[in-house]
Structure to design on (656 residues):
């Protein structure tokens, strides 16, 4: 039990923070109920996928600056493919866009492995490229999404055997998020591949000497990141009904949530649960600010400031953990 | 017999070319620039005349100053992605404050956010050791938020471009753009600072080997803070120049210059990992990009295609320089 608490202490603390924020929200707005929770889950969806994409790469010891641009590209691709097409066509669009994310993500990894240029530069370059490609697909927000896809994130999930009042707290968006993330994450974590991802993030040389194919694992990590980003792009299209070629603020948000979620920016540590809870915390802070009737633009400033402070704090912890005078 | 031992082996042509590129990056860059101009002349005979050159210079100068910010920050292994927001803020505040204030007050008000953002960047990077990319991206988000709030307060008063900035941005003196009056001293100062002053050497030292610099008594955080404040100031001045050139204050005025400014510094031979490069190459890089943009406009390449190309240029050039260094 103590061991569990020590290992999961950070996540448990975050969870407590989240519960505390819910209480605060109820105090500000006594009417905050299941419907609002549903819209929170919908708002969290793209952020959560962006964070999952960032988390897996950060655990592997890298960073992916192209997350937001990848989401923009996959979002506009899905929106323009579904524009004017039949409902059934979307059954083809979804796997196509996900495969596109997987391949483009793998391309990031391959470029890093082949050119030996540091990940931060490669993903900066692919950030430009993906942004450009998104503008080529759609030069202004537009497109459409299939109705059944839109319906898949609205409303609640009827669960047999659960009382109606409890069922109201299970929005479809949340179910979708949990299913998509954990169907990939849990098998991965317990597999050899997942272990290898942690290994290259924690000590690349040691991993290499223990027979981990470092380059290949890194490519897989970036490919999975691309896949999650594609989920994020799809969820953007689904929840807004259109695709926008200009990337949202998902890059900074994903890095902030990764840091807040207890994943060390050096790699090799942390899990997916912490960052996901961190996303809920960050979104709920925004909800509270809105409920307090603060100007949305001021909210953007406060949110940006919180994210910068979180990242600063995370970086500060890293220096404290190092011997004095060491380079980061 | 012994001559083969004492004489260095004649290097292959490829190696010699590489070494030449590494030692004198300016010459191949200027050759590239001339080739681009020649292609332009072939595609549109007669386009290259006195007016075209003045026009190219006018558009290259703001880019070159912003690329100067990137050059200096990249020498320390950093990057400054907030230059676009900083330039936009200064330009927008200048254009709106000049309506009711006297020019000096408006100028001071316009430069204030530039210095502040630079200071926050510097403290975040220098003291808290946040990655410069994340830090400057965060401050640029916060800056954009502030600008949106500010825009609301001045929406009634309107905006105007001061005559002086008009003159500086678009005017010609004996066929030379007036912007040169600003650019030549700024460029001379940057080159002088980098090559002839202690501060410039500190930048190279910190970027080349931070640990060694620190152990030899360099106060890392002071150097970095000063650097980012200077970068912010330069970006603010560029904003004022750019508003005189574009003449339409908007909230995304200088954003399109950010990616090219990074690309210009990289093309100019400044290493994105720090310690190597200089400002002269960056100036030629900015000219190359401006000519390239004209060329792409003539070829009717859309904005998206341009971004893709810039992304590939950054990646390719970084990979090429990496090979050159490894070979030595």
């Amino acid at each position: 039990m103590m061991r569990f608490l020590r290992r999961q202490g950070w996540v448990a603390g975050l969870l407590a923070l989240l519960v505390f924020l819910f209480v605060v929200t109820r105090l500000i707005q006594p009417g905050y109920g299941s419907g609002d929770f549903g819209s929170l889950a919908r708002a969290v969806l793209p952020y959560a996928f962006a964070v999952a994409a960032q988390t897996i790469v950060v655990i592997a010891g890298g960073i992916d600056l192209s997350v937001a641009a990848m989401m923009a590209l996959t979002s506009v691709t899905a929106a323009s493919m579904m524009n004017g097409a039949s409902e059934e066509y979307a059954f083809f669009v979804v796997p196509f866009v996900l495969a596109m994310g997987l391949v483009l993500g793998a391309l990031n990894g391959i470029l890093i492995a082949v050119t030996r240029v540091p990940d931060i530069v490669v993903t900066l370059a692919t950030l430009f490229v993906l942004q450009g490609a998104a503008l080529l697909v759609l030069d202004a927000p537009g497109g459409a999404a299939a109705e059944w896809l839109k319906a898949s994130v609205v409303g609640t999930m009827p669960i047999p055997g659960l009382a109606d009042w409890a069922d109201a707290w299970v929005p479809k968006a949340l179910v979708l998020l949990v299913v998509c993330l954990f169907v990939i994450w849990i098998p991965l974590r317990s597999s050899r591949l997942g272990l290898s991802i942690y290994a290259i993030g924690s000590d690349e040389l040691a991993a290499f000497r223990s027979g981990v194919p470092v380059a290949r694992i890194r490519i897989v990590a970036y490919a999975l990141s691309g896949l999650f980003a594609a989920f994020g792009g799809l969820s953007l299209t689904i929840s807004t009904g259109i695709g926008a070629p200009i990337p949202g603020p998902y890059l900074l948000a994903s890095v902030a949530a990764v840091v807040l979620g207890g994943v060390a920016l050096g790699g090799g540590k942390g899990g997916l649960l912490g960052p996901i809870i961190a996303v809920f915390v960050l979104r709920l802070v925004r909800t509270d600010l809105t409920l307090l009737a603060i100007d949305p633009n001021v909210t953007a400033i406060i949110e940006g400031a919180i994210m910068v402070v979180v990242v600063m704090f995370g970086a500060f912890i890293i220096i404290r953990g190092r011997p004095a005078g060491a380079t980061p | 017999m012994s001559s083969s031992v004492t004489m260095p082996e004649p290097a292959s042509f490829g190696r010699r070319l590489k070494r030449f590129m590494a030692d004198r990056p300016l010459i191949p860059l200027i050759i590239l620039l001339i080739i681009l101009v020649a292609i332009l002349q072939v595609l549109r005979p007669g386009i290259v005349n006195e007016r075209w050159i003045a026009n190219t210079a006018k558009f290259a100068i703001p880019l070159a100053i912003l690329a100067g910010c990137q050059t200096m920050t990249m020498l320390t292994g950093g990057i400054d992605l907030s230059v676009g927001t900083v330039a936009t803020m200064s330009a927008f505040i200048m254009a709106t404050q000049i309506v009711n204030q006297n020019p000096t007050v408006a100028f001071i008000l316009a430069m204030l956010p530039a210095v502040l953002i630079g200071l926050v960047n510097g403290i975040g990077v220098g003291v808290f050791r946040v990655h410069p990319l994340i830090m400057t991206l965060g401050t640029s988000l916060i800056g954009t938020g502030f600008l949106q709030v500010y825009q609301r307060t001045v929406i009634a008063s309107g905006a105007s471009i001061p005559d002086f900035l008009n003159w500086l941005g678009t005017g010609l003196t004996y066929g030379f753009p007036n912007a040169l009056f600003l650019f030549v001293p700024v460029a001379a100062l940057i080159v002088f600072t980098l090559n002839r002053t202690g501060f410039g050497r500190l930048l190279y030292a910190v970027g080349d080997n931070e640990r060694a610099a620190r152990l030899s008594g360099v106060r890392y955080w002071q150097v970095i803070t000063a650097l980012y404040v200077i970068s912010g100031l330069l970006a603010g001045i560029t904003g004022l120049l750019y508003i005189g050139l574009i003449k339409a204050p908007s909230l995304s005025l200088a954003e399109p210059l950010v990616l090219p400014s990074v690309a210009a510094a990289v093309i100019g031979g400044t290493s994105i990992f720090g310690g190597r490069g200089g400002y002269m190459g960056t100036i030629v890089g900015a000219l190359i990009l401006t000519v390239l943009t004209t060329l792409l406009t003539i070829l009717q390449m859309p904005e998206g295609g341009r971004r893709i190309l810039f992304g590939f240029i950054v990646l390719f050039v970084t990979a090429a320089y990496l090979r050159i260094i490894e070979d030595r």
